[in-house]
Amino acid sequence: MSISPPQLDLLCRVCNLPTAPYREEFVAAYIKAWAAAPPRADHLGLHSDRWGNLYLDYRRGPRPKRTLIFEAHMDHPGFIVKRQNRDGTIKAEFLGGVPPSHFTDASVGIWQPAGVGPDGIPIGRWIATRVINAKPAKNKNPIIVDLAGVKEKISPGAIGMWALPDAQVIGELFAARVCDDLAGVAACLCVLDELIAHKTACALRVLLTRAEEVGFAGAIAAARDGAISKKISMIGLETSKTLPHAPQGNGPIIRVGDRTSVFSSSLTRFITMRAGGLADQDSKFKFQRQLMDGGTCDTTVFGAFGCDAAATCVALGNYHNMLHDQSVRDAGIPTAGPLIASETIHLEDFASLVRILVQTAAEFRDYRPDLSDLIRRFSRMHREGQSKKLREKATKIGH
Ligand SMILES: [Zn+2]
Asked: Is residue 253 very low, low, confident or very high in pLDDT (cuts 50, 70, 90)?
């Protein structure tokens, strides 16, 4: 089963939004309009915390004992204009993990906003410029960038992104300026739409965080504020750098850990069993269970603060827009310089991730944050046969 047209449409809309670390306002405006559109308004609550993280709440049926949260981040590495000089050249900061060596001869678009449409889609246009010079600030971050002069007046604070085209489908891949993590945001919204459409009796909170790319700022703020507790189970949705053992097209990934920590054993197992159930029903259904240690994600933050936290992701091509290799060009993936390209995900991976997460939310009432079901199974194995055999030939020492 491949991605449905409404899901692809939502994925495109979300991944076309301008965004940068600490500058997620266009994503937030879209979410607000999306949640208010019928029939969602009758089924979803939306609020923000004092840090600007967003919370979408769905519940049908009784209040559950544990709260399930799906989490994704709304930012992506990008430029913030500091000032425009008299000659039209622009001084900007680049926030997020891309080394200066990748900036050489790259083209950049500065978003010139003209409001937001009733459907939450920003109105405006990208003004084209290019990198003249990029060097790290004294403390290494952010990267200070000089951009070529433009005729238009650019205001300080304008958001810039690599000059890559809007989202498009290329073969089985989805290519966009941003997949990390607006595809994760889109997956959360697709899950909510599925729960609403099927009147699923369950409860789900979606948490959309800010400024992950500069050190998990929104997640840390939410965690410190007590947005998480021992009664919460949190599942992160990410796009994560493709690794040799975790290629695109092999299915979405149940992420057992990242570069910094390993995640909740019981929650990881619960998700894996839901995925396994889908694979039992559909022989073509694929998923992977992997350590994705190409980077650290918000799930490590929530786990460190004591939350029962697990993660899922889809394998990301051209991580942080860094061109992976020449084959990317050959495949027709758009580029914006010798070393800059659109990020990609596999459409089937995305659609299957949504299915696993819908199933996880729908069956979450059966979840226990321990391995008591395993203990029961092991105890039964011990009682039914193993203990007798062990006793029969036990070498006894010291009796
Ligand atoms: Zn990310």
From this structure: very high
